[in-house]
Input
Amino acid sequence: MLSLLAAAAADTAGPIQWAELGLTPGIDLGFFTLRWYSLAYLAGIILGYWHLSRMIKAPGAPMAQRHADDLFFYCTLGIIIGGRLGYATFYEPSLWTSLKLFQLWTGGMSFHGGLAGVLVAIGFVSWRGGLPFMRVADYIAVNVPFGMMFGRLANFVNGELWGRPSDVPWAMVFPHAGPLARHPSQLYEAALEGALLVIVLLFLFWRTRARYRPGLLVGVFTAGIALGRFTVEFFREPDAQLAEFAADTGLSMGQWLTIPLIVLGVAVTVRALARPALASGRAAPGAA
Output
């Protein structure tokens, strides 16, 4: 993607103009615009559910299909509710005193809040079904990067969450970010937090015995996505309301929030590798 953008820039007299890429905010149905951001969430959740349903058919699954169905429903709620409340808490506290809190198209969603919401959903389904929490979380962790990748691509299509000013060949001018060319940091996030992590986790699940080491997939996911986010934040423009905070502390809010996740992810990974692997997965409760 970046090489194509660089080639496009070479054919023009100046930096790439995002407005000239022919991108639209969504599918215009006449009476309603189906936005790419909403479709990205939907695509990530549906693809994750489909892949989870395949995963539990492989040996060692800690759950049955009915549990996957419950997780699909409750994790969706966790993503939406947790993501929105997390954004209001960490990035725009004024939303707590406004009805705009319920307008998901105003402001944004927080990855950290969405992650917390998903953990609550996994905990509830695991408790209700008598399932091992960590092993269920392993299976969910493999599927989260699908949604991260689609979501960041949708941010790029929307021309939002742009990067810092830059002179790299693929830098571009975003309509609402002033005249300066900037890093397309949305694409960096889609690559690091999405595509790369998808490849790593799919390989670990399908080509190794990682599923038999409770917590290993969770640890790799947590450390990987946090490291990706921490790295990309060096190229991403801080939220306007938090620019002063980033200048004062030397790191953005996103980076401060990822540091505990990096430590936690490494610790969980080391613990999983230090403990004996399961000989086999226990039979899925309720499975025939």
Q: What stands out?
A: The chain has one domain: 33-274. Residues 33-274 form one domain. The chain is about 60% helix and 5% strand. The longest strand covers residues 26-28.
